[in-house]
Amino acid sequence: MLITLYVVTIINVLVAAGFAIGGLVRPSSVAPGQQTEASRIFALYTFARTIPVALVTIAAILWAPLTVVLWLSALAGLIQLFDGYVGTKMKNPRTTWGPIGIALVQFAALAWVVSAAS
Q: Considering the entire predicted model, what is its pTM?
């Protein structure tokens, strides 16, 4: 059970980190249109929020108590859920359903662990 939560959470934050890095390297891979100064700054903000969350989450899985991992897993799921909301505003099925799917898997793994613990 726990290993499932850990694997799902690690995949979740690594996928988010990959998109953040991709947005820095090639913004058009994440958001359509021409690269502008505003899109570059937005990519930097995305990177600045995503990479620390990924690093702290992976560190928590390795060394922190389960309660910390549960909270960070919930945070990772919420981030993906909100990313899916952004995808709806972009009218892009890939950037809508990909994050929402990851969020649903994250919340299912989280619910499984919490229900087994109680």
A: 0.91
| Residues in contact with 54: Cβ distance below 8 Å, sequence separation at least 6, in sequence order | 13, 14, 16, 17
Rounded Cα distance between 81 and 61, Å, is 21
Ranges of residues in the chain whose predicted pLDDT is under 50: none
Report the amino acid identity of residue 44. Answer: L
The span from the CA of 77 to the CA of 28, in Å, is: 25
DSSP string, 59-116: HHHHHS-HHHHHHHHHHHHHHHHHHHHHHHHHT-HHHHHHHHHHHHHHHHHHHHHHHH
- 16: exposed, middle or buried (C-beta count within 10 Å: 0-12, 13-18, 19+)? buried
